[in-house]
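To whoever picks this up:

The nightly regression suite flagged Glycoside hydrolase family 19 catalytic domain-containing protein as changed. Nothing in the input moved, so I suspect the structure step. Input below, exactly as stored in the fixture:
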Amino acid sequence: MATKASPRTASAPRRRALASPDAFFAALRGVTGSLTQAQVNIVNAILVAGALWPASWMAYALATAWHEARFKPQREWGLGRGKPYAVPGKYGQSQYGRGLVQLTWDRNYEWADKALGLGGTLLRNFDRALEPDISVRILIMGMEAGAFTGRKLADYVSPTGTHSEFIMARRIINGTDRADDIATYADRIQSALIKAGWA
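Regenerated output under the current build:
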């Protein structure tokens, strides 16, 4: 699939914001059910961090954060039990998923530490990926740069995303696992963003 232009490299990118946050969150709760204030805070942080993105990219990021972590940076359920990354790696820590995208493997923690300018603190303590600000930045930067699998949002999703594009975009995070379910979340969240004035 041809690479789509990144909003950061397009001429005169503009920062987006919701014209009607209340309408957006009402529609989002139609997807998620009730949300705590902590979850709302994470959603707002994602909206700010990805403010240069079109509605489609933002919808897919939010759909991913909902599917992977329910908008709560957290440790992987089961702590990776039975999977190769459950064992300690070269930093002496289990490499199971953490945060909003369930960051796994030493190499991904190394990328995140460098990309976010954390000076080795993430490598000394993988649980820093659970801190809301760090977790949001990993989500946004990693999906845009293709840090997790070598595939990025621009490889799959156009400014107005389609269901089939959202299905393909699962390869940014985790192959094709639950791809259709996440695409369905993204469809509904994209519609909510557009109706609330994001696009």
